[in-house]
Specification:
The complex is a heterodimer. Chain A is α+β, with helices and mostly antiparallel strands. In chain A, about 20% of the residues lie in helices and about 35% in strands. Chain A has a single domain, classed as Beta Barrel (OB fold (Dihydrolipoamide Acetyltransferase, E2P)). In chain A, the strands form 2 sheets. A 6-stranded antiparallel sheet of chain A has the order 1-2-3-9-8-5. The two termini of chain A are about 20 Å apart. In chain A, about 40% of the residues are buried. By secondary structure, chain B is of the alpha/beta class. Chain B contains 13 helices and 23 strands. In chain B, the strands form 6 sheets. Chain B has a 5-stranded parallel sheet, covered by helices on one side. In chain B, strands 9-16-10-11-12 form a 5-stranded parallel sheet. In chain B, strands 19-20-23-22-21 form a 5-stranded antiparallel sheet, sandwiched between helices. The radius of gyration of chain B is 24 Å and the shape is globular. Classes of the chains: A alpha+beta, B alpha/beta. The complex binds flavin-adenine dinucleotide. The site of flavin-adenine dinucleotide has 37 residues of chain B, from strand 2, helix 2, helix 3, strand 4 and helix 8.
């Protein structure tokens, strides 16, 4: 369930590093806890963000929850498809449900994030 | 008391006609002067027609979502603007006839024409045909209302550059509309037109829409605008607007230019206080042209009262009516002191979804240096809201920390303008937040959200997960906080 090769944040975001770029989304666990996603408040392309900062919000039928970025940099793209189809976050959280792309200013930040095994352990620990 | 006094009321809006009826109920002989139609702005060009049209939008939006409810709609619902406007007009006409019947039953003499004071004890009325009559009176109540502000930088032509009056008569819908001003009126029209399929852009000088409302209400409204694709330009002014062939080209203070089919200027209202012989009669006006009155609604000219939009305090229909009743009581009784209290004025804002508000906003409480607590409850967490599929928004309750008294309540969500009255009566009775929290609320209903928000003030809402750490920071859109 937890894909290898991604880095995970304690707030249940994942990033996929492609050179200087980080693609960011929320994890399967997060989308499952949120329930049906109905809307995403996304940042504007071009804004600078710092790691730990809230960059948007996910609205589901149950709740509203912030999206944090674990890396600093500049928003290069937002997933426009989510405007029409927010449910992609539920259906394909690690694929078509990606949320933003960030041009990282300090790629070393990604090193401090969890890998799939660590995130799995983290989830287990939280559940106990 | 001597023989029943004669009272002349100028203007038959929700201020004037209510004052006239109340004065008649109290035994006065009342003349009511109106140059247009009874009901004033509110009934003919304001509250009622705009809400009639917004309801159309709600009906169509519901139909568009019919599938989600398991209801099959054979063809895509569309608007028939002509029928919509006919329906609106029928509603207005029915209400107008109702007011005529009420005035008649209370023996109020309605005089058609434009009135002006001839000193403080006489009113001259000129009708459309030029006939002039003079009405002698013991007291006067001025209720002449207001009209849209039309700054000269906008080339008003009633077609491409318009005010709210024409915006309520959209015989042909534009493809695109730019609204100058994201206040109450601008936002209501913004949601209405966008729902009708018009591409709406809004331009606002302040840094948030509904800038005088509670800051969280503003951010929720802004998010709903984003969802619907209403484009919002904040903290900019319109510097120029020019009609160029079929379009209007608007230049903003940040240098952007936007070309649209039509622009609606919605930046406030001006009091109708000119050419009424006011100064000559001893009535004093303020800087904005508003009639200065005391708390008894009496002007500086003894025996002359003024109410409603013309006094420029809180420009709402129900405030005009409340002021009208106070003025009538004072005008008839002469000596008995009835005074206006503006502490508790509930109000509705008919965006999609709508807003209900009463009392202090968070920013006001902070500005006044009050120590406050805040409780919130999202409609998302409420069963009744889910049965209606209306889960956007929340109830926000602001209390004074020490006394636990309710200072203000702000709601965005389904039936918010109806729901707000529970908070208003609680505040009027000086209730503590526990009075709402402990009162049994029927299940499943929307006001349960009020109960839960009241409980949340002390972190004990049953249907919210436990608060982690300190309460959410002030000023943040707290539309829920459960989740991972
Ligand atoms: C688009 C729009 C939507 C609105 N929606 C709401 C809402 O949802 N809720 C709300 O509370 N308020 C709303 N308002 C505001 C509300 O309409 C006003 O606050 C209210 O009408 C004020 O009442 P009034 O009696 O003071 O004045 P008015 O309603 O303006 O009435 C004044 C009357 O006096 C007459 N008059 C003026 N001068 C003379 C004269 N010299 N001789 C004879 N007659 C004269 C005018 O013809 C008019 O009929 C809205 C306003 C607009 C424009």
């Amino acid at each position: 369930m937890i894909p290898e090769g991604l880095r995970y944040h304690t707030e249940h975001e994942w990033i996929r590093q492609e050179n200087q770029t980080a693609v960011l989304g929320i994890t399967h666990f997060a989308q499952d806890a949120l329930g049906d996603v109905v809307y995403l408040e996304l940042p504007k392309v071009g804004v600078e963000v710092r790691s730990g900062q809230e960059i948007g919000e996910v609205e589901s039928t149950k709740t509203t929850s912030p999206v944090y970025t674990p890396v600093s940099g500049k928003i290069m793209a937002v997933n426009e498809e989510l405007k029409e189809k927010p449910e992609l976050v539920n259906q394909d959280p690690y694929g078509r449900g990606w949320i933003v792309k960030i041009q990282m200013s300090d790629p070393s930040e990604a090193k401090h994030l969890m890998d799939a095994r660590q995130y799995g352990a983290y989830l287990k620990e939280k559940a106990d | 008391m001597g023989p029943s006094p004669r009272i002349a009321v100028i203007g038959a809006g929700p201020g004037g006609y209510v004052a006239a009826i109340r004065a008649a109920q109290l035994g006065a002989r009342v003349s009511l002067v109106e140059e247009q139609e009874v009901g004033g702005t509110c009934l003919n060009k304001g509250c009622i027609p705009s809400k009639a049209l917004i309801f159309n939008a709600e009906v169509v939006e519901l139909l568009k979502r019919a599938e989600e409810f398991g209801v099959r709609v054979i063809s895509e619902p569309t608007y028939d603007v002509t029928r919509m406007l006919e329906r609106k007009q029928r509603i207005v006409q029915t209400q107008v006839r109702g007011i005529h019947a009420l005035l008649k039953s209370w023996g109020v003499a309605l005089i058609k024409g434009r009135g002006r004071l001839i000193g403080p004890r006489a009113v001259e009325v000129a009708d459309a045909g030029g006939t002039v009559q003079r009405v002698e009176t013991d007291r006067v109540i001025l209720a002449t209302g207001s009209k849209p502000i039309k700054p000269p930088i906008f080339p008003f032509d009633g077609d491409r550059v318009i005010t709210s009056e024409e915006a309520l008569e959209p015989r042909v819908l534009p493809k695109s509309l730019l609204i100058v001003g994201a206040g109450v009126e601008g936002c209501e029209f913004g949601f209405l037109y966008q729902a009708l399929g018009v591409s709406v852009t809004m331009v606002e000088m302040k840094n948030r829409p509904l800038a005088t409302e509670d800051e969280e209400i503003s951010s929720l409204v802004q998010r709903e605008m984003n969802k619907r694709g209403i484009k919002l330009h904040l903290a900019v002014r319109v510097e120029k607007a020019a009609i160029e062939s079929t379009q209007v080209v608007v230049t903003l203070s940040d240098g952007q230019t936007i070309a649209v089919d039509r622009i609606l200027v919605s930046i406030g209202r001006r009091m109708n206080t000119e050419g009424l012989g006011l100064e000559e009669a001893g009535v004093v006006l303020g800087k904005r042209g508003e009639i200065l009155v005391d708390d008894r609604m009496e002007t500086r000219a003894p025996g002359v009262y003024a109410i409603g939009d013309a006094v420029g305090r809180i420009m709402l229909a129900h405030v005009a009516s409340a002021e009208g009743k106070i003025a009538a009581a004072n005008a008839v009784a002469g000596d008995r002191g009835h005074s206006m209290n503006y502490a508790i004025v509930p109000a509705g804002i008919f965006t999609l979804p709508e807003i209900g508000t009463v009392g202090l906003k968070e920013w006001e409480a902070v500005e006044q240096g009050l120590k406050i607590r805040i409780g919130r409850y999202p409609f998302r967490a409420l069963g009744r809201a889910h049965t209606m599929d209306e889960i956007v928004g929340m109830v926000k309750v602001i209390t004074e920390q020490e006394s636990d008294r309710i200072l203000g309540v702000h709601i965005l969500g389904p039936h918010a303008s109806d729901m707000i009255h529970e908070a208003a009566i609680a505040m009027r009775l000086g209730a503590k937040v526990s009075d709402i929290a402990e009162m049994i609320h029927a299940h499943p209903t929307l006001p349960e959200a009020m109960m839960e928000a009241a409980e949340d003030v002390h972190g004990s809402a049953i249907h919210l997960t436990r608060r982690k750490g300190p309460p959410p920071p002030a000023g943040r859109a707290g539309d829920g906080r459960q989740g991972p």
